[in-house]
Amino acid sequence: MNQLNAINSFSSQPKALYILSFTELWERFSYYGIRSLLMFYMISELGFSDASAYGVYGMYFALVSASSLAGGYIADHYLGNRKAIYLGAMIIIAGHAILLLPSQNFLNLGLGFIIAGTGFFKANITSLLGQYYQPHDPRRDSGFTIFYMGINLGAFLAPFACGYIGKTLGWHYGFGVSGLGMLLGLLVFYLSNEALGNIGCIPDKNKLYKRGFLRLSPYQIILISTLLSIPVFAGCIHYHDLMGNFLYCSGVIALIALIAMAFRCKGEERRSMLTLITMMPFFVAFWASFEQAGASINLFIDRHVNRDLLGYEIPTAWFLSLTPFLIIILGSAFSMLWLQLGKRNLEPNTPVKFALAFFQASLSFWFLKLGVEEGLGIGAISMIWVVLYYFFRTTSELCIIPIAFSMVTKLAPPHLTSFMMGVFFLSVSFAQVAAQQVAKYFTAAHGMKEVVHLQDKAISLSIFGQIFEFLIILPLVAGIGMLIISPLTKDVFKKYG
User: Fold this and answer.
1) How far is the C-alpha of 293 from the C-alpha of 170, rounded, in Å?
2) Does an H or E element contain 34, and which?
């Protein structure tokens, strides 16, 4: 069967889009379930200070993103996308099972399993989707926006289900429910195996299973190495401050290696690789502001936002559902917008879309800063400022993240697609650490386990205000930089559509 026969027709989206979107939906349910619980679990049950909780949170999500680099490389050269997805899903499920057990040691170990599993899963399901589109296929950006809407349906459901169960029945039950989401995603993917055709299968079975060093096949070595990596990840989380510095150093080394890899390519492939590498620092800046939501913004809402609605106090975790809810509502509109602008030759190029995202991200924090100024006298702010923050955070997300997914699958050389998708998530990894370093630098913790008195609340609010001021400036500067480099990348994006 020819691979492109998996596409229904040029005028409609591939069937694989809906299968992979539904699978990714439940993996994201798992991911965002943990995101909605982790900070509160560490502070309320394990007794972490704000600063320590920021450190663990940042390192965990940094390693989740960084592990995609290894997972993408292994899939490109040995496993293929689909086998990597199967393996990753099973490891993630095992990690959730461990999180049902109490104590910090089990927390670190369970998170270590999830890091390893997500490395195999995340980059590969995105790059697998890209293979169902022909070069210059005008449906690609629209399809990836639909894919991103599926992701956000899982992200929308997770805080409601996991956040509520974790808060009322116990945090470990919340972790368990998020694990059930990953199990459902695995079942969906397995049952749809035939419908996916032969795209993303093992590139060379003889190479994968041929015994070599110590009578071990590459597949056995991959499994053993993965199991050995799990306690290493757990140790990195435990020693998060030390490992944060190490991650920055390794990032510089990785950047040099990527540039060297790009210069080994020839002609258009070299230009495409260098364009992708140029985009990485901008992604770091975006994600450093974007990833405040699960940590500092969560604590800010919990401590300083009046969450009363008609006599009912809205759980803090539920606010995390605002972004995915808005993406579900607005995602199809953005998808149609790009298509209609494209038909009229008015669609902005990729860097301009990214610049629009940065400016909206800056605006979102400006609204939070206005809320802080309103609340300094009383220690609490209205929910409307949080809603405005999430609205513009969402529109910024729709202008960059699905477009970035599409960009990587367009520009990366075919034999490096999953690897470069892993590089994209590596930039997210650096940003996760940077995001929590920003929060730690300005943190309101200073030994306080909770903020009770009005004077404490005023001090805490002013420190959050400093965080927001910094996060107004960071994306604003990045957006201006993106507009400056836009003409330099025009030919590359024009060639690849």
Assistant:
1) 22
2) helix 15-40
Host H or E run for residue 313: strand 312-313
Sign of CA dihedral 244, 245, 246, 248: positive
Q: Residue 22 and residue 371: Cα distance in Å, rounded?
A: 37
Q: Say if residues 88 and 110 touch (Cβ distance below 8 Å).
A: no
Q: What is the pLDDT of residue 5?
A: 41
Give how far Cα 480 sits from Cα of 287, 354, 476, Å.
Answer: 16, 10, 6
Is residue 175 included in any domain, yes or no?
yes
Task: Judge contact between 119 and 87, C-beta under 8 A.
Answer: no
What does residue 305 show for φ and ψ, rounded to 5 degrees?
A: -105, 130
So what's the pLDDT on residue 495? 60
Query: So what's the pLDDT on residue 4?
Result: 43
For residues 392 and 323, what is the distance between their CA atoms, to the nearest angstrom? 9
Q: Is 135 helix (H, G, I), strand (E, B) or coil?
A: coil
- Spatial distance between the Cα atoms of 63 and 433, rounded to a whole number of angstroms: 9
* Bridge partner residues of 307 (DSSP): none
User: 267-290 and 417-441 are packed helices; what angle lies between their axes, rounded to 10 degrees?
Assistant: 30
- Total domain count, the chain: 1
Q: Name the average pLDDT for the chain.
A: 82
User: Using one digit for the tens of pLDDT, what is the confidence trace for 385-437?
Assistant: 999 999 999 999 888 887 887 788 778 877 777 677 767 777 777 777 777 77
Q: Residues 196, 200, 205, 211: is their CA dihedral positive or negative?
A: negative
Residue 31 lies in a domain: yes
Instruction: Please indicate, yes or no, if residue 184 is contained in any of the structural domains.
Output: yes
Nearest alpha-carbon partner for 438 in 471, 461, 462: 471
The burial class, CB within 10 Å (0-12 / 13-18 / 19+), for 469 is middle
Is 2 within a domain? no
Please report the pLDDT score of residue 109 as a whole number. Answer: 93
Please choose, from the candidates 393, 389, 371, 388, the residue with its C-alpha nearest in 3D space to the C-alpha of residue 380.
371
Could you tell me the CATH number of the domain that includes residue 191? 1.20.1250.20
Helix (H) or strand (E) holding 190: helix 171-191
Give the DSSP letter string of 221-273. Answer: HHHHHHHHHHHHHHHHHHTHHHHHHHHHHHHHHHHHHHHHHHHHS-HHHHHHH
Query: Model-level pTM?
Result: 0.77
Q: Distance between CA 357 and CA 64 in Å, rounded?
A: 24
pLDDT tens readout for residues 460-491: 787 888 888 888 999 999 999 999 988 877 77
- pLDDT (0 to 100) of residue 362: 95
Domain span at residue 175 reads 14-496
Supply angle C-alpha 266, 271, 274, rounded to 5. Answer: 110
pLDDT band at 442 (very low <50, low <70, confident <90, very high): low
